[in-house]
Amino acid sequence: MGDGNVNLPPGFRFYPTDEELVVHFLQRKVALLPCHPDVIPDLDLYPYDPWELEGKALAEGNQWYFYSRRTESRTTSNGYWKSMGVDDPVLNSSNKKIGMKMHWMFYMGGPPTGVKTNWIMHEYHLSDSGSSSSRSSRRSGHTKIDFSKWVVCRVYEQNFCDENDDGTELSCLDEVFLSLDDLDEISLPN
Amino acid sequence: MPENMSISVNGQSQVPPGFRFHPTEEELLQYYLRKKVSYEKIDLDVIRDVDLNKLEPWDIQERCKIGTTPQNDWYFFSHKDKKYPTGTRTNRATAAGFWKATGRDKVIYSNGRRIGMRKTLVFYKGRAPHGQKSDWIMHEYRLDDNTVDSNVSVSVSNTIVGEGNQEEGWVVCRIFKKKNFHKTLDSPMRSSIITAETGSQMLSSCNEGALEQVFQYMGRVCKEDYSDENNTMPRFLRTIDTAGYHDGSFMKLPSLESPNSTRSQNCYRPVIADHNDVGPSSNQVSNDPNLAYHIDSGLTNWAVLDRLVASQLNGQTESSRQLVSFSTDPSMSYFGPTDHHELQLPTVGSSSSNHGNSQEYNSEIELWNFTRSSSSMSSSDSLGHVVMNGAGA
């Protein structure tokens, strides 16, 4: 994906923090600056179902990244995204708010009666005052709407713990074993 | 700090924004460790050598930085833990504490072929046996001694094999700080929302984080390979006979290493027998039966169950105490699916009754003898034996 100019040894993956997504990708996109590496494609107002993102968005593991635009309703051919009603501020390292992270869930079918799925989307957009690139145009007035409506999205299918034992976290079972290690004085038949 | 400059990746712009070192277990073993043990050059020196006896976990964190981006885990090569022929377990001790193995090792596969093992260790501050458990976890990955042929793993179980040249015995390690399960929802990968069907299948009325995930997990963990020579688990827990598992209606039980054991049976029937003839009412261990689980046939891992029971009896692990109640009432040896106040075992067949179950089975093996345990288990008197019967057929 992208220009293929990322040439890293095995084991390096695209796992951006919220701050990195906003600072290194969204802010630069909005400011029309080149992103390096240019790995996230632009799907605009994409009509794709989440499982159609493969090959279109940047895929990393079971996550997909792409740029899009802010919109009130995201309807696809087989369903729609519905807000989960959770908006988290994205802070930079000096605790300044630089953007917002919205959570969406994908529903199959039509809006009132759709069936919930495991597909989740994080949509990052710049906060109104957080973007240094729009300092000149302050609030309201003559803001270039097109650029300020860019968002960057992460889509993934929610998994359960047991499919996630990749070694980066204590597995569920080991968690129990660990909590029971205090009981090692019990003489197990050995 | 100056040492870090030797990592070429540590230069400012070597790792592009958004990228971090997040290798799979397969990559760690097949690429990095295999190159290390064969003295091949590794492109970027991202994994450094660490003497585990000299560095505390928080020092490793500093030494193994990659670039300037925040990290949740750190990687390094280390020498295999030295083991002495006497069999005494040696801890990887540092100035401030020691690493202690926990759980059981996990087999790492690559393309369906076994390539190595993962050991989990916990850092304790202080000196054994009175160390204080910390949140620092280490996963130590080792290659199988004979990885050319995938079928030779059995012969490796001899502990003498591979001890000769331990100077060349490298392992690759990942350390990280354990997260509380209740706090992991910020991670997109680790949320633990339970769908309706999964939740009702496994257990009901439980909102505790870790345990419910455990029970979900147990349905699959039995498929793993338990054959590890260094395992801290007792012998009978190491192998899981999956022959009887067809549709989830039968429980998978450990195959017992007993001459009477009938491994060829299609299924095993769990029976709890009371050998002490204590009245049923005194056998209720749980403080509050209403907190008990109803565990359906999805419960398949006896190892975990047994340890939970043990902890329950000991009354030391709070979570277990709250979550599991256990009864040795003989009338409960035949569990019905509708009683939500007792730990449920699946119902197999219809011939069981309140007593005399053992007559029907040709192999009754003592699985867990609590009376043999330490004297601290005051509440265990009433629970004499947990016996497991092979299905008679």
UniProtKB/TrEMBL annotation, chain A:
The keyword Chaperone does not apply. Keywords: DNA-binding, Nucleus, Transcription, Transcription regulation. The keyword Disulfide bond does not apply. It comes from the Eukaryota. Residues 8-158 form the NAC domain. Gene3D superfamilies: NAC domain. One of its GO terms (biological process) is system development. GO terms for molecular function: DNA binding. SUPFAM superfamilies: NAC domain. Coiled coil: none annotated. InterPro entries: NAC-dom, NAC_dom_sf. PANTHER family: NAC DOMAIN-CONTAINING PROTEIN 104, NAC TRANSCRIPTION FACTOR 56. This is NAC domain-containing protein. It comes from Rubroshorea leprosula.
UniProtKB/TrEMBL annotation, chain B:
Residues 15-178 form the NAC domain. GO terms for biological process: regulation of DNA-templated transcription. Keywords: DNA-binding, Nucleus, Transcription, Transcription regulation. InterPro entries: NAC-dom, NAC_dom_sf. One of its GO terms (molecular function) is DNA binding. Residues 347-359 have a biased composition (Polar residues). One of its GO terms (cellular component) is nucleus. It holds the Pfam family NAM. It is found in: Nucleus. Residues 337-359 are annotated as: Disordered. This is NAC domain-containing protein. It comes from Rubroshorea leprosula.
